[in-house]
Amino acid sequence: MNLSAQGNSGCKIAKTLELLCYTVRDIIKYHKETGLIAVKQCFKRNSAITDAELRILEHLVKKTHRIHRSRVIRIKSEAYNIDCLRTKVKFPASIMVWSSMSSSSVDRLYFADGIINAYKYIEILEQHLLSTIESLELDGKKRVFQQDSAPCHSARKVKVCMTENNLKTLPWVSSSPDLSPIETLWSRMKKKLREHPAQTLNDLKHRLQEIWDLCALDEYKALVDTMPSRIEAVLKHKGGATQW
After folding, report:
1. Closest Cα to residue 148, out of 118, 116, 180, 124?
2. pTM to 2 decimals?
3. CATH class for domain 96-236?
4. At what angle do helices 217-224 and 182-195 cross, to 10 degrees?
5. pLDDT tens digits for range 122-146
């Protein structure tokens, strides 16, 4: 207040005291109105955890460096610790895979080179699906083949092939994977593959077949048994997303 009484402006006082201009002006205004100089009390949020819990959390972070898919919990000094870094394959191996499943078995994986077009898909059906159906002795009147509406699945040549081989298909909802039990198996395979990523194409094929062969009979039987519930859910949500 002495600086203000000497005729100094608010900004000059702020520069001298290394404060903000509006802070000094508010203090001077408050003093003129009340004759007092009050320090505004800052609100401090109470901590949701105790000091003991905070120490335990710090210990866990330092000990385990809990790694999430998108970030690593660490302190500043641990930026380049080996257990705080996550390696990533820049160009991971990838391949097109096809297979089929029923309530009683799953077929082996078929690895396709390049894109699967209508001609290649017909080759897959004739060499793999038909032989699987024959080996399982599935009743032609009761069996229903399920596939999505990918271009190679809905091509005219493919439809002719299915008609000639008595393959009745389930009508498919556009842009919806919700009806497909095999999508659950693909998802589980991807999750397990992320735990031990393949570095080469041959290694990828080996890992995929290895994971696929671990599927238990009751697992894919349970998935097929969910079909009535899946269809009911899709109808209820008018083709939209469901719990599946």
Report:
1. 180
2. 0.56
3. alpha beta
4. 140
5. 999 988 888 888 877 666 667 888 8
Structure tokens at 71: 């970030």
Position of tokens 């002006």? 25
CA gap 50, 57 in Å, rounded: 11
Closest among 107, 87, 91, 88 to 99, alpha carbons compared = 107
> In which region does residue 121 sit, left (phi positive, over 0), alpha (psi from -120 to 50) or beta (all else)?
alpha
What's the rounded Cα separation, in Å, for the pair 182 and 147?
A: 10
Domains of the chain, residue spans: 2-34, 51-84, 96-236
What HEC string does 186-244 produce?
HHHHHHHHHHCCCCCHHHHHHHHHHHHHCCCHHHHHHHHCCHHHHHHHHHHCCCCCCCC
H or E element that contains 110: strand 110-112
Euclidean distance between CA atoms 130 and 154, whole angstroms: 18
Helices (H), the chain: 2-5, 10-17, 21-34, 51-64, 118-124, 130-136, 151-154, 156-164, 182-195, 201-213, 217-224, 227-236
In this structure, of 13-22, 193-202, 220-229, the range with the lowest mean pLDDT score is 13-22
Q: Which amino acid is at 75?
A: I
- Rounded Cα distance, 164 and 220, in Å: 28
* C-beta separation of 212 from 99 below 8 A: yes
Nearest Cα to Cα of residue 168 among 211, 128, 133, 123: 133
Dump pLDDT digits (tens) for 17-47. Answer: 777 777 778 887 877 777 776 555 555 567 7
45-49, 60-64, 227-231: least confidently modelled range: 60-64
